[in-house]
């Protein structure tokens, strides 16, 4: 019977066939151990010379790393194996023999591995990270469907630059100028006025010259936008969403978290509600705790965020940033107009900002003023202003960076390992 490594437990003590690649091999004169992978998981195949035909043992001994095979054998329980099973091999059919696979079991430098990203994805650690990424994506669709959201697809080619012009990727749209999308938000706002609650999920582009372990040039963002909803209600939705993601990853990615040596208790602590502190409080606290030179009005860098996050065992919302630090569309606070109704969600353990969100300006005149103040063309934003002309309502939304969330849940240092093919400041290959 043909099966997969993920399903193999259902065939305990039975004879099965797997299509698999040879991740690694050890052999002596009497026994060969094959580390097999089939995309669904990893399992050890054991070939005992005395128990198989002579040619089968010779084939096993000669197998090279990453060769593709059909392998048949009996499924045996093995408590020590991560999968809980091993395969007692009886038959091997070579489909394709790989020669000189470049990623050997020895240590390789990061640049070498990044040059071979198309192959590196096959390794256990990368497999685990892609599975966690996949779980977050599927859990996102479940969460938003359960909360009455409609998935809306925002365009990638756009004519505007809502998150600021310095980080724009410029291209041509026939004769016109165009930009790669920095955010789906403005389109999600139009969607919210049509469908009430929407979320988008797609690639976003920032030509950021920052070479940090948290910045990608192309990253995937999940953005939610809700009509008739104010700032505080948006924060509640965000904390419930993030807590749900953590819970689902803990439930469904046990093998992966174990392989990554992730301290699961840290993820189990991610329970709503999350603490909230204002930007004002954060500045005052930082000034007294090692950052005396920080001035009100300055943006936080990652050392500031890490210091603030270390105070809590779960993510923390930093709310009401100075208006001057944030994009044009954020609603000023009701009691003072130098800060806006926004929040950044900072992950614990130094994983940085995961979510940025805000209540949006819904007053036509105020939005026009803000666009003008930011030197943005009212013509270009004509369609966006229409949303404030025809049945404008309070609304709010947020965007979660997928790669930073994968890095946090998986406990990895750098976002380059959290996306299949990272685009970095100095890398677009492969
Ligand atoms: O805070 P940002 O810029 O927010 C927006 O784009 C809003 N329009 C979202 C919204 O309200 N709909 O980005 C949101 C999140 C950040 O918190 C971070 O997780 C991620 O996107 N992010 C990046 N991730 C990787 N590389 C980069 N260069 C990133 N820039 C932002």
UniProtKB/TrEMBL annotation:
Residues 130-430 form the Aminoacyl-transfer RNA synthetases class-II family profile domain. Keywords: Aminoacyl-tRNA synthetase, ATP-binding, Cytoplasm, Ligase, Nucleotide-binding, Protein biosynthesis. It is found in: Cytoplasm. It comes from the Bacteria. It catalyses: tRNA(Asn) + L-asparagine + ATP = L-asparaginyl-tRNA(Asn) + AMP + diphosphate + H(+). GO terms for cellular component: cytoplasm. Transmembrane segments: none annotated. GO terms for molecular function: asparagine-tRNA ligase activity; ATP binding; catalytic activity, acting on a protein; nucleic acid binding; transferase activity. Its EC number is 6.1.1.22. GO terms for biological process: asparaginyl-tRNA aminoacylation. Belongs to the class-II aminoacyl-tRNA synthetase family. NCBIfam families: asnS (TIGR00457), PRK03932.1 (NF003037), PRK05159.1 (NF003483). Homodimer. This is Asparagine--tRNA ligase. It comes from Shouchella lonarensis.
């Amino acid at each position: 019977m043909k099966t997969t490594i993920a399903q193999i437990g259902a065939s305990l003590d039975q004879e099965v066939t797997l299509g698999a690649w040879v991740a690694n091999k050890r052999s002596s004169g009497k026994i060969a151990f094959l580390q097999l992978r089939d995309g669904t998981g990893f399992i050890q195949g054991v070939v005992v010379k005395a128990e198989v035909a002579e040619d089968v043992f010779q084939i096993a001994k000669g197998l090279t790393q990453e060769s593709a095979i059909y392998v048949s054998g009996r499924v045996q329980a093995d408590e020590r194996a991560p999968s809980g099973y091993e395969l007692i091999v009886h038959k091997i059919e070579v489909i394709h023999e790989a020669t000189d696979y470049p990623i050997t079991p020895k240590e390789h430098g990061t640049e070498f591995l990044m040059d071979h990203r198309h192959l590196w994805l096959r390794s256990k650690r990368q497999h685990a990270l892609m599975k966690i990424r996949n779980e977050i994506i599927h859990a996102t669709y479940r969460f938003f469907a359960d909360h009455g959201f409609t998935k809306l697809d925002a365009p990638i080619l756009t004519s505007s630059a809502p998150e600021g012009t310095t980080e724009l990727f410029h291209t041509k749209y026939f004769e016109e100028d165009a930009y790669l999308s920095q955010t789906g938000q403005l389109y999600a706002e139009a969607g919210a006025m049509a469908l009430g609650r929407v979320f988008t999920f797609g690639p976003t582009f920032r030509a950021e010259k920052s070479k940090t372990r948290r910045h990608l040039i192309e990253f995937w963002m999940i953005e939610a936008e809700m009509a008739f909803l104010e700032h505080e209600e948006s924060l509640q939705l965000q904390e419930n969403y993030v807590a749900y993601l953590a819970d689902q990853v803990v439930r469904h990615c046990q093998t992966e978290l174990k392989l990554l040596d992730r301290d699961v208790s840290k993820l189990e602590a991610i329970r709503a509600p999350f603490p909230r502190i204002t930007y004002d409080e954060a500045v005052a606290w930082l000034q007294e705790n090692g950052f005396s030179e920080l001035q009100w009005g300055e943006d936080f860098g990652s050392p500031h965020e890490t210091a603030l996050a270390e105070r809590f065992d779960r993510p923390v919302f930093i709310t009401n940033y100075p208006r001057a630090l944030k994009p044009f569309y954020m609603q000023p606070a009701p009691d003072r107009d130098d800060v806006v109704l926004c929040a950044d969600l900072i992950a614990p353990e130094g994983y940085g900002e995961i979510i940025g969100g805000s209540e949006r300006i819904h007053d036509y005149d105020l939005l026009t003023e803000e666009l003008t103040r930011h030197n943005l063309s009212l013509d270009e934003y004509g369609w966006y202003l229409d949303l404030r002309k025809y049945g404008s309502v309070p609304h709010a939304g947020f965007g979660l960076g997928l790669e930073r969330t994968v890095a946090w849940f998986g406990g990895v240092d750098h976002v380059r390992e959290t996306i299949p093919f990272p685009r970095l400041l100095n890398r677009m290959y492969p």
